[in-house]
Amino acid sequence: MKKLDRLFQNFTEACGQNGFELFLSPETEPMKDLSRIGNDTVFFQARNGQLFKLRNDYTASIVEFFNRNVPDSLRVWYSGFVYRYDPLGQIQPVFQIGIETIPYGSLQDSLLVLKILVEPILSCLTGGVLVEIGDSRVIERCVRHVPKSFRKKLFELIDRKDISELELFAFLNGLDLSEVLKLVEASFTKRSVEQLEYFELEPSIEKEIVQVVDFLSNFPGVRVEIDFSIARTVEEYDGLTFTIFDLREPALIAAGGRYSVNEKVLGVGGTIFLEERAWSR
Question: What digits encode the pLDDT tens for the residues 248-260?
Answer without folding.
Answer: 877 889 999 999 9
